[in-house]
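Submission checklist for the structure archive. All mandatory fields must be present; incomplete records are returned to the submitter.

[x] Identifier: HEBP1 protein
[x] Organism: Callaeas wilsoni
[x] Residue count: 140
[x] Sequence attached
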Amino acid sequence: DMAEPIQQLTRNNNPQERQTIPFTLIQRKEKLGDLLYEKRQYGKAKWACIKMKEKQYEQSICLGFMKLMRYICEQNSSGLYLGITVPIVTIVHTNEAHSAMTQAVTVAYYLPEVLQDEPPHPFDSDIIIEEWPATIVYSR
């Protein structure tokens, strides 16, 4: 099922063509010279998002990512490969009391700068285009 998107990604797997999302570094945590995480602030932007709720957290991330890859690799209203932006963001959801993680996760893809004004529509109705305000992200 993912053969075509993977082939498309492989054909377009030029590190120079990956757009890094602009951010402001707020904090960097290291231990013995190894990076543990970074706290980053991203500006207001449009993202393609999918919320998944599988039995296992890892399964939700994997399936959400695969659906986003189909969108990136031509299953969109432009019919074009959209290009890779890094990182792909995973949002972990918590219960109402914020005391435990839920099975639901959101996997999100930052739309490249050239697509911010008019993002292609996804064919998959589970994927939605959202405009996020400035956002804090923890990255590792």
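[x] Structure attached
Curator remark: Helices lie at 3-11, 57-72. Strands lie at 19-20, 23-31, 34-42, 45-52, 85-86, 89-94, 101-110, 128-132, 135-139.
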